[in-house]
Amino acid sequence: MTKQKLICIKCGRTNPKKSLNCISCKGFYSLLTVEYSSNKLLNIKELYNNYLPYHLFKDNDFKNCSLTKFNKNIWLKNEGENESKSIKEKDIFVGLKVASYLGYKKTLCVSGGSGKNVVNFFQKQANFPLIKLYSPKGEDYEKTFKLALYNKNKNVWNITPGINPYSQEGSKTIAWQIIDSKIDFETILIPCGNGSSLWGIYKGFLEAKEQGFVKKVPKIFGVELKNGPIGKSLRSGKMEKNGKILNSKAHSIDVKESFSLQKAVMVIKLTAGGIINVSEKEINKAYKVLHKKKYLSNFTAAAALAGANKLKRFNKICCILTADEF
């Protein structure tokens, strides 16, 4: 039987199982993660029941979206094929199921970008209320995010992937599906606003490596707009914000700050990856190419291909298309 605990990546302290913030470090950055200890597993399918929270999941709970070769060095993992058309479906599904297991009757999720569609989807599917919190007109997404983070209602659990450490576990399944394809990718590349998917995918590869299902963790790259908070923090060595949003069509990555910033920076450093900045012109070009090839990706997903086009030194790049248009 796999054991699990909720630990802080900064101080290493074990936290109560319902915590969203480290009881020692506090602050608004997402610092908690689920740590597992398990005996040797027989195959990669066993990761789903042993390395996701509370043995609640199995592999066929998560859609294995297509992974197809796009050109000589780029493969596309199309998470827009999820029923909700978004990568966040996997995260919010895990968050909802853990919330129910822990006894919550209501959950809260900040909705922005493709996450809006996922929340709408799960509001129809969930067996208990899922409250969606949109940014009020004229206010920043980041301000709404902080309101949700400091929610005082103990009967409502925040399952926003950028905040909830259990929800962030959902993205690990993408890594396991990639490993199961038997393609030895040098690089994984994904658009990032909060950066929580960077962390989830990294953890998925790391845990698979610990179990002997993969020899190494690929280099992980994030794609941001100019002066994005993760790249800015990597350059300065400090936890940075972006001064303003750019009103990009790739609105899911058009952010002032990342609430999973320390996790995202850690992933990039540990895997010798990086941040690639893309322009609106490059995103538009990639968007047109994808749609010409019959992909229905939105502009944020197109940013991934725009970034991959700049990584010509790698022979095998897995590019995560995060969402379709809706």
Automatic annotation (TrEMBL):
UniProtKB keywords: Pyridoxal phosphate
Span of domain Tryptophan synthase beta chain-like PALP: 138-321
Cofactor: pyridoxal 5'-phosphate
Domain of life of the native organism: Bacteria
Pfam families found in the cross-reference section: PALP
Record protein name field: Threonine synthase
